[in-house]
Amino acid sequence: QVQVEEFGGGSVQAGGSLRLSCTVSEYPYTKPCVGWFRQATGKERQAVAGIYIHSGSIGYGDFVKGRFTISQENAKNTVYLQLNNLRPEDTAIYYCAVKGLSGPWYEEDKYGYWGQGTQVTVSS
Do the beta carbons of residue 13 and residue 34 sit within 8 Å? Predict the structure, then answer.
């Protein structure tokens, strides 16, 4: 049973930083991709960032604009999402998910395994 778990959410003031972690118990795909998504209350889920574990190829949502950084620590099956210069509009539940090579990193329908999410709240 593949387990995906997110850690590191919390409450910060605007301009602050958080580091989210995503741990995957085992990768169910030969060439996995880990993506971060977020969903604010009343809004659709939005693709934040994705990383292909073996190639290291990375993608970001257009709104990120250099504020967030995705990285990986392969020995721990862990992917990080560093959130800097946070804004109130970044408030959302942040989810981590895993898929294979099929489809671009931002296509959430391709992700077969999802974590429960971690809340990020940014106050002004």
Answer: no
Q: Which amino acid is it at 76?
A: K
Diameter over CA atoms, the chain: 43
Q: Which residues of the chain have pLDDT under 70?
A: none
- What's the pLDDT tens digit per position in 84-112? 999 999 999 999 999 999 899 999 999 99
Beta carbons within 8 Å of 18's beta carbon, 6+ residues apart: 8, 9, 10, 12, 82, 83, 86, 120
d(C-alpha 38, C-alpha 109), whole Å = 14
First to last CA, the chain: 40
SS3 96: strand
Residue 58 CB partners (closer than 8 Å, separation 6+)? 49, 50, 51, 52, 70
pLDDT of residue 76: 85
